[in-house]
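Example record

The entry below shows one chain as it appears in the dataset: sequence first, then structure tokens.
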Amino acid sequence: MKTSQIVNLVVSEAGGYDNLGYTRKDAYNYVDKERKEQISEGDAATALAYLQAKCSVDEHFVIELKKDDDDRLINILWANSVFSLIMHALENCWHSMLLTKGTFTRCLS
């Protein structure tokens, strides 16, 4: 749910901004703060699990991971089946011009 939707719902339930007891900016800040507190170290694992699940239902889904020397995740590049099929079709023409630093790998093993 978007922050604006959350704030609008609270405002609606209160009967308007005047009945909130705090400013609109306070409401946005509170929602953003709560979201940031929900983010934890497990987010990378959650993202990887989600992407791996996508691989199991879409044989053309691809993932590229970049890790540092300590095996910490730096970047995740993913492509859905449409992009993957387009890249495969263009691979012989100009794939190397688009992806000069690394290649796509099929789903994680």
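Notes for this example: The chain has two domains: 3-38, 43-98. Helices lie at 3-14, 24-38, 43-57, 81-98.
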